[in-house]
Amino acid sequence: MKCRRCKAPAVIDIRRHNAAFCRDCFLHHCKEQVKKAIDEFKMFGPDDNILVAVSGGKDSLALWHILSELGYRADGLYIGLGIGDYSDESGVRTRAFAQAHGYTLVEVSLPSDYGYDIPTAASRTNRAPCSSCGLSKRHLFNKAALDGGYDVLATGHNLDDEAAVLLGNVLHWEPGYLGRQYPVLPAADGFAKKVKPLVKMGEREMAAYCVLLDIDYQVEECPMAEGNRHLGYKEVLNSLEQRSPGAKAAFLSSFFSRGHDHFKDAAHVEKGELNSCDECGSPTTGTRCAFCALRNRVISETPVSIGRKD
Amino acid sequence: MKVILRNPRREIEIQGPMVADSLLRRLEINPETVLIICNGTLVPRDTRFSDDDEIELRPVISGGAL
Ligand code: SF4
Ligand SMILES: [Zn+2]
Ligand SMILES: [Zn+2]
């Protein structure tokens, strides 16, 4: 195969674009697609301070790299989740990556700063690990963005992630979730602005980006991901994609352009009146936010874990 | 040729030469879900492997809370 842009030998083919690229043209293509998403959805401008949520995986490290290469001011935020070797390794990789590129990394540790870890939260509650984990991460990302005075929080959700979430939201017809599923969520009282600049990039392209630049990302999966329902949705979407290349991208982009508007109001209605959490001040519909409720429940049953190191 | 698979990491021996596309079909791997890395270099689907190549089929699908 030959590169679509320069006719040199290709290193990767992308069926949905019906194209193959050489190394340099592929890296250029990735930056172009991210730039396009940033502009199309008015995510942020050149003077904004961006906080990138980084996990040590391919998507977040590539996102951090691309934003920096495009000239944006982007710091990283890493959250230690206390998931055994997986967390230890992803922390080491993230720190090494930040140091090698001279990027600023902010760190928060669930075990040392909040007294619990994800495996404990999973076993002490009736929640699936990813549910406690997602809830904790969303809360801490938001808090770090607000406390640090950042203009916007960027996450590494890619096209495959978003298409899988969309499929889930459609299968259950969740109007509120559909109303909130968009590459940009504006800032609101107590909520930082959130953006997903990789929304036009396939998961496979992000891995290729890292491989071509020797970015040492965490290839091993989180041990708690197994059986996660989004993995099942990705499998379904990928078999569809194999039969009809471009299906995933069309599903997602036509939702953004033609479907999302119809659910916008549902997002507002479901949110309801907001108060401040008694403990941490975060917005909540009750008296205590979901994060503090989870944490209280976990640490009240596991006093030994308080202050435990990562 | 030696074929390295991940999650969990394992190695298998397959008789070459063979084109990348046929290898994926033979192992029933959806090309959307992996990168093809031959002797440490990323390669496209039409690459012809010889018997002494070392090939990694690296999965690219991540799970978790989205
Ligand atoms: S797979 Fe689940 S438990 Fe593991 S890091 Fe992702 S969200 Fe957390
Ligand atoms: Zn080229
Ligand atoms: Zn709270």
Automatic annotation (TrEMBL), chain A:
InterPro entries in UniProt: Rossmann-like_a/b/a_fold, tRNA_thiolation_TtcA_Ctu1, TtuA-like_LIM_N
BP-aspect Gene Ontology terms: tRNA wobble position uridine thiolation
GO function terms (MF aspect): transferase activity; tRNA binding
A GO CC term assigned to this protein in UniProt: cytosolic tRNA wobble base thiouridylase complex
SUPFAM superfamilies: Adenine nucleotide alpha hydrolases-like
Keywords: Transferase
Ranges for domain 2-thiouridine synthetase TtuA-like N-terminal LIM: 2-27
Protein name: Unannotated protein
Taxon lineage: unclassified sequences, metagenomes, ecological metagenomes
Automatic annotation (TrEMBL), chain B:
Pfam families listed in its UniProt record: ThiS
Record InterPro entries: Beta-grasp_dom_sf, Mopterin_synth/thiamin_S_b, ThiS/MoaD-like
Gene3D superfamilies assigned: 3.10.20.30
Name assigned to this protein: Unannotated protein
Organism lineage string: unclassified sequences, metagenomes, ecological metagenomes
